[in-house]
């Protein structure tokens, strides 16, 4: 039986505009593990009413403590399990289907990337509760730091989100609730945009250094992909789907083309069901 994977629907055709980072982390992991699944596409304004009936705790909260309902969700009819956090979904796939697919999602490796800058985050960051055993805690920290680094520069991406024209205003209103600022505040132009791009490049320098350690590339472990690459790759999908083409080309070329090569290599795990 196939798993059901709940992903965020943006502008039609949704398979072409899909660029939400956390669902992409899950799609990469599902395809890597070769676990059969079917996608249910959920428009962003409908996420709460789809998620709440599953009775899954929100993986993050707004500043006022209210739940921040988001996707992905994976429901596995074989085990009766439903999981609603991208990291916890990956852990579940590794535990439930250890011998499936292209290998282990969480092999031990150096993941020493730290986001330590004082920049405003426009959405709460999820921190998975997966215990302290083995290599997984290092991946938890890596996920949190990568999410923080990209989220701190979300103003570059927010204004370019591909919205369904039929529900554009409704979606903007939902985003305003999620990020806590007016939609127009997510659009940065001119000199300020140039400065934010410069900050983005500087912030990713430590991440690029990790990718340089194995010259065989394009993954952190050279020719072997892991969930850490899917974490970064999910955000690169967000960049591709929301940034002007010329800016996406610039990012792909940073640090000798590390991020462009990673994005291209992840295509093998990007197939839609």
Topology:
Layout lengths: L2 E7 L4 H4 L3 H13 L3 E7 L3 H5 L21 E4 L4 E3 L2 H11 L39 H16 L3 H4 L9 H12 L10 H14 L1 H8 L14 H16 L2 H21 L8
Parallel strand pairs: 1-2
Antiparallel strand pairs: 1-3, 3-4
Helicity, in percent?
Answer: 40-55%
Please give the CATH architecture: 3-Layer(aba) Sandwich
Assign the CATH class: Alpha Beta
What spatial order of strands do you see in the largest sheet?
2-1-3-4
Q: Structural class, please?
A: alpha+beta
Query: Which outline best applies?
Result: globular
CATH topology: Glutaredoxin
Number of domains: 1
> Could you name the CATH homologous superfamily?
Glutaredoxin
**What does the main sheet amount to?**
4 strands, mixed
User: Low-confidence stretches at least 5 residues in length (pLDDT < 50)?
Assistant: 119-127
Query: Gap between N and C termini, in Å?
Result: 14 Å
Mean pLDDT: 90
Helix count from the secondary structure assignment: 11
* Beta-strand fraction estimate: 5-15%
Protein name: GST N-terminal domain-containing protein
Domain GST N-terminal: 10-101
InterPro entries: Glutathione-S-Trfase_C_sf, Glutathione_S-Trfase_N, GST_UstS-like_C, Thioredoxin-like_sf
Describe this structure in words.
- The chain is an alpha+beta fold and about 270 residues long.
- The protein has a single domain, classed as Glutaredoxin (3-Layer(aba) Sandwich), CATH 3.40.30.10.
- It is built from eleven helices and four strands, in the order βααβαββαααααααα.
- Strands 2-1-3-4 form a four-stranded mixed sheet.
- β3 and β4 form a beta hairpin.
- α2 runs parallel beside α4, α2 (about 20-35) packs across α10 and α5 packs parallel to α10.
- The longest helix is centred in the last third of the chain and has 21 residues, at about 245-265.
- The two termini are about 15 Å apart.
- Mean pLDDT is about 90; it is low at about 120-125.
